[in-house]
Each structure stands twice: as C-alpha cells, then as structure tokens.
Amino acid sequence: METKITFGVIATNRNFFADSLVASGRRKVLDKLAEFGIDTVALSETDTNLGAVETWSDAQKCAALFKQHQDEIDGILVTLPNFGDEKGVAEAIRLSGLRVPVLLHAFPDVTSELTAAGRRDAFCGKISLSNNLYQYGIDYSLTESHTVDPDSEEFKAEILRFVQMCRVVKGMRKARLGAVGARPNAFQTVRYSEKLLDASGINVSTIDLSEVLGNASKIAGDDARVRGKLDEIRAYAASGGAPDDRLVLMAKLAIVLTDWMDAYDIDATAFQCWDSLQKNYGINACTVMSMMSEKLMPSACEVDIAGTASMYALTLAANAPSALVDWNNNYNNEPDKCLFFHCGNWAKSLVSNIEIIPAEVLGTTLGRENTWGAVQGRTPAGPLTFARIDTDDRRGVIHTYVGEGRFTDDPLSQISGSHAVVEVPDLQRLLRTICKNGFAHHCAMSRSSVAGILQEAFETYLGWEVYRHE
C-alpha cells in the first residue's frame, strides 16, 4: 500500500500583522512536515510575499501551482501564523479544483506578547476562514484544539491523523473492488448497489467462478509459479496436516486471482467462498484470502462487496490488515461482550498460532476433505475498531457505522476457524442499531483505534451517513 503522502500547504498573511510571524511560522510548519516524512507543494518566497497567500494574485498563483501537482496532492494544510486572509485562501482552494481533505491549523498566541510585533490573532482568523470555506462549499477538518503549537506532540498527532484520513479518502474515491463469483443464494444480506458505490468512485469488476477454476485447472502442478506459491503458503502458516494435493490447488487458485487482479488493478476482493468452490474444486479459499489481506489487499467472504469496501477503508486508515467478521455469538451472560467469527480467512497478523485446517462447519455438508484451507487462530487482546459500509437501496444512500472496543483474553473453549472475544461499550444498543437500520450481519475489524478517522472521512469528504457508536 502506498504510504507516501503529499500536502499542498497554504500559509496565509494579513498585512497589518508582523511579517516575521509569517516567515518563521511558514518555515516551521514546512520543516515539521519534512520531519514527519511528508512531501509538500507550496508557494516559494519568490512566488509571493513571504510565500503566503493574501491577495487575489496570490490565490491565482497558488491555485495554478496546485493544479500543476494535482495528481500528487493528497490533502491541503492551511496554516495561519497570524489572522490571515480568509478570502484569499478560500479562492485559492476553489480555483485549484482539488477535491481533497483540507486541515485548518492556527498558531497560538502568548498573552505576554500581544503587541504589534508579537500578536497573531490566528485564534480569530481560523473562525473567519472556516466561515468562508463553509460559504464556498469547501469541506474541511479542524484540529482538536483550536490553536496548536507546531513544536508540540499534539501537532504531530494531528498531522499523522490527517495523513490517515487523506489515505482513506483518496483510496476510497478510486477503489477498484473485485467480485469473484456469485453470492451464495440465501445471502441476500450482502446485496448491494454497484451504482451507489460507483457514484462515490468505487468501481466493481466481476469474474465468473468457472473462469477462475477453469484457468486454475490449466496450470501444471510442477509449474515454477506453483512451486513458488507452495513455498509461500508453507512459510505463511502451519500446514502439516494439509494434503499436498490441496495445497497445490490453493497455489493455483492464488496465481489465477493474482493475475486477474493485476490485469484490472484490483485493490480488494470478495470471494464466492462456498459451496461451488468445494464441490467443483475441492478446497476452501480462506488461506489464499488471508494471504492477500495480510498484504493489505483485503479479501472478504461470500461476495460481500460492501464488506470488502469496509475492510479496505479500515486497512487504509490503520495501514494494517483488516478482516471480515460475523457478529456471531453472545459471550455467556455479559451484555457488552460477544464473539467475532469466520471459518476463516483472517490475516496472519490478526491471529496467534495460525494454522491451515479444514472448515468444520462447511465440512459437515460438503465433506471435510473438500474444505482444507480454512485458517485457525484467535485474535489476542488489544484495541479494536469495527466498521460497516452498506448501500441502503431503499433510500438511495450509503450508510455506515463505526466504533471502537477491545479484543479480550476471556476464556473460550477451543473452536475452529478465526475467532475473537470482543468487548464493546453498550453493545446491546449497537446491535439494536444494526438490526433497526438494515445493516448486514458482517462487519470489518482491525487491531487499531481509527474510528474517528473513518467517521470524518466517510461523513465530511465522502458524504455518507455515519452512526458513530460510543
């Protein structure tokens, strides 16, 4: 996953405040961004007075520069070393035509220095700038504290949070998802609207499962690519109990899927994981899907494309693997705890002691020998973010929920597949919300704390409805 981020940076000035505040403030912010590993596109001190935006001419120059680098810029940081010129900034952003997240930052004053040479008034200027951006219909984000010192840890945290949100917005607006096969007939819960997703920039490409299995069957068992993939599978998870011929089938499946994803630039997939695969090919796809998710190319079960989108958003926000889970079981009589489960395909880094096994539940009807490839493992204690994106076709909108909790190490009898015990504050209220609003029984999860990032990305920049569970 691409992790390098580029900001368009706008420093702004109000000319009856001290120029020295702008010169030093602009340089400090640019230096801090470089320290954080962020590339920048900004006016130079030879382009405009102090390299700042104040006049109509400055706005035009800034917009032209941003247009020149429009394919590079992931977000815009506006910094106010003093009150600034709110109209110039708003016009620069509007003229640039960029549809990227915008973060507003204001320098703090020191009350002992409220002199002509020392006062900033950025506290007030930020309010005025926000008002102008609101009038122009430009979406923007705010720091948690109204003013923030660039030398503080708070500033670093705000910038890194904004980086994560830029990654989510950029990624989701150009996401390419792959639907492999048809959804299981009974699973109407995973139906979705391609058109609503496409309106947000999310493309869905499809491939018939027969084409996948047909291409896999044409690959010779001693093909060099098969041998290489077999080595990768054995290195990925304990596979001592898996028959060699089933591992070969997994390797061939992985090759075909990789080739198709490369051909169509697919970022993430949703797979027809039962029951045609077991009946006509003889394995579970879980191991292959787990390996893709570990490489930050999420793969969801049961052709749940909306679930794939949820996984991809979480992966972008946390820059770490995510998984698709069932809200599956209550945990005894504890109302704020439950079990996450799938049979399962969770990424290696999400579970401990990963092992390739037959899928116990599917094996009861499809034959244990035909279900090798499920991933066994439990998620250890730690932070939890969960999220779900769904298309509400009755109302013609995309609606979502996000929230946080924790994975626990509560006692759990050994069960097969991928599983976890989780604790979510006021879980019963969340479950009522899921049921009353027609969400699917799946959600995406990761070991992270990024619900706030997803909320703002979904709500402010993608225009989706968000229920934030707290």
Short descriptors:
L-fucose Isomerase, Chain A, domain 3, Rossmann fold, single chain, 15 helices, 470 residues, 2 domains, alpha/beta, 5-stranded parallel β-sheet
Q: How do the helices and strands line up, and which of them pair or pack?
A:
Blueprint: E1 6-11, H1 19-35, E2 39-42, H2 56-68, E3 75-80, H3 86-96, E4 102-106, H4 122-136, E5 141-142, H5 153-173, E6 176-180, H6 194-199, E7 203-207, H7 209-217, H8 224-236, H9 244-264, E8 268-271, H10 276-280, H11 286-294, E9 299-300, H12 305-318, E10 323-331, E11 334-342, E12 352-358, H13 360-366, E13 372-378, E14 382-392, E15 397-408, E16 418-423, H14 427-436, E17 442-446, H15 451-461, E18 465-469
Helix pairs in contact: 2-3, 3-4, 5-12, 5-15, 7-9, 8-9
Describe this structure in words.
Helices cover 39% and strands 23% of the residues. By secondary structure, the protein is of the alpha/beta class. The strands form three sheets. It has a six-stranded antiparallel β-barrel. Strands 2-1-3-4-5 form a five-stranded parallel sheet, sandwiched between helices. The longest helix is centred in the middle third of the chain and has 21 residues. α5 crosses α15 and α7 crosses α9. The chain has two domains: 167 residues, Rossmann fold (3-Layer(aba) Sandwich), CATH 3.40.50; 294 residues, L-fucose Isomerase, Chain A, domain 3 (Alpha-Beta Barrel), CATH 3.20.14. The mean pLDDT is 97. α1 links the parallel β1 and β2.
